[in-house]
Specification:
This protein has a two-stranded antiparallel ribbon with strand order 1-2. Strands 3-4 form a two-stranded antiparallel ribbon. It starts with 12 loop residues before the first strand and ends with a helix. Helix content is 30%, strand content 11%. The radius of gyration is 21 Å and the shape is globular. The protein has 169 residues and is α+β, with helices and mostly antiparallel strands. It contains 5 helices and 6 strands; from the N terminus they run ββββααββααα. The longest helix is centred in the C-terminal third of the chain and has 17 residues.
């Protein structure tokens, strides 16, 4: 999963030197988007409102079930501290790189209700595994899924379009 951390960029403020008769004032130099609580609107400049994406799983995708995604993704040893988690993860990887519990014909997980904690896209899992605070969960989960879907199905895939549409609504 991608661990790119995004941080809110405060409006840069520049002090404008006043004349002898004026009081000091501050001038806003930028209208960059501010991140707020999940699901809230943010200012996108020129008074436009932009709804922040909320992560949600999209049925019949399964990109996260491709466990061996290649060298651009972290290895189990880079993700997990507990050796039993590393061992469990590796035991789930089939010869084709897909999870042994992923049913390719139906694009579903045969153990979904009982899947390991690391297969769950939830705020506490992202904080435990990746150090991502809960307030950044939606942004990071969406970014991670987009990266994974692109790697598994391609940047022009139907799965990516479906995911992007789902998180916008």
């Amino acid at each position: 999963m991608s661990r790119a951390m995004l941080t809110a960029v405060p409006y840069p403020i520049a002090a404008v030197k006043p004349s002898a008769t004026e009081k000091p004032r501050q001038v806003k130099l930028s209208t960059k988007t501010h991140k707020k609580a999940s699901g809230s609107s943010t200012t996108a400049g020129f008074g436009a409102k932009k709804k922040e994406a909320l992560w949600q799983c999209v049925t019949n995708c399964g990109a996260c079930c491709k466990l061996d995604k290649g060298p651009s993704f972290p290895s189990p040893e880079e993700i997990f501290e507990d050796s039993s988690d590393i061992q469990l993860y590796k035991s789930l990887v089939g010869s084709d790189g897909w999870c042994i519990h992923y049913e390719k014909s139906t694009r579903t997980c045969s153990i979904y209700a009982d899947r390991p904690y690391f297969c769950r896209v939830e705020p506490h899992v992202f904080e435990t595994l990746y150090g991502i605070p809960q307030k950044k969960f939606n942004n990071e989960a969406c970014s991670s899924c987009i990266d994974t879907i692109k790697a598994v199905y391609g940047p022009g895939s139907e799965e990516l379009d479906k995911f992007k549409n789902a998180i916008r609504n």
